Fold Inosine nucleosidase.
Amino acid sequence: MAADTEPKKIIIDTDPGIDDAMAIFLALQSPEVEVIGLTTIFGNVYTTLATRNALHLLEVAGRTDIPVAEGSHVTLTNGTKLRIADFVHGADGLGNQNFPPPKGKPIEESAASFLVHQAKVNPGKVTVVALGPLTNIALAIQLDPEFANNIGQIVLLGGAFAVNGNVNPAAEANTFGDPDAADVVFTSGADVLAVGINVTHQVVLTESDREKLASSNGKFAQYLNKILDVYFSYHQEAYNIKGVYLHDPTVVLAAVDPKLVTCIEGIARVQTSGITRGITIFYNKQKRFAEMNEWSNKPTVKVAVTVDAPRVMKLVMDRLVDS
Ligand SMILES: O=c1[nH]cnc2c1ncn2[C@@H]1O[C@H](CO)[C@@H](O)[C@H]1O
């Protein structure tokens, strides 16, 4: 295979999660990428359950060759009072389906250490697709000063750029889940593409899309159709819509094909305390401020501002319906 057609190596850092399940299956169905590992984190569920669900999803997909490395059980600042979104995904994180426990086990290595090692052996060639709070990525940055350089790109679901959050008017769930970690990642100097809910809220799976999943015989389509009930109910109740936001699948596809989104570049910081804890504030560098501030001299990140939602939806459906 020619070097430029080799699939992009990706590690998915995940807190599965209904939209995570969809994103993982989508990545496994995408020839442009090779999933070289899953790392787990709290968010939609606690980390222990995230690991169990990650192993389970790989078993459903018949991809137990992919290693799962368990991530942190606490925030970057050792916080144990975690905000878990079980009201969005069900108590089991996967739509209350009572799936049997997985047979497999996570590898011995921690998520942060796995990230550091994979980036080191393939410098510039590994993309992290981060779908939960950014604790593991921040730990990797702290563990190895070269990590931010060695990692190819970090494509993350996080932030609510110039829009309301989904935890409260200020904060999106992943930046709220570990704001200190998010701020470390945003200011690390790594090649970061942040996809916030200002973008993912434009990608909606409708009831008619779900009917297509339901009438497909594909194993992923059947599985996803089952677990989507809880996610639909939540969106109906919280947003009064008959559809669901495809946060995580959009982020995976942004890693698969960066042309699906357009971005702006600037400095993003995350508030770590107070009533706006978890808020993301982006500085577009248009004004030269007279005084130094908390954004001065920090490395830039890319922030997604538009998405080709019809194209994203077509890819989601094409790759998941007849699978
Ligand atoms: O209202 C919400 N509260 C908490 N988490 C949510 C909510 N809506 C969606 N998500 C979850 O958080 C990530 C996007 O911010 C997604 O993983 C999504 O499933």
User: Anything to note?
Assistant: Residues 17, 19, 44, 85, 88, 157, 166-167, 172-174, 197, 238, 247-248 surround inosine (CB under 6 Å). The first strand starts at residue 8 and ends at 14. Residues 6-319 form a domain with the Inosine-uridine Nucleoside N-ribohydrolase; Chain A fold (CATH 3.90.245.10). Residues 219-239 form the longest helix (21 residues).
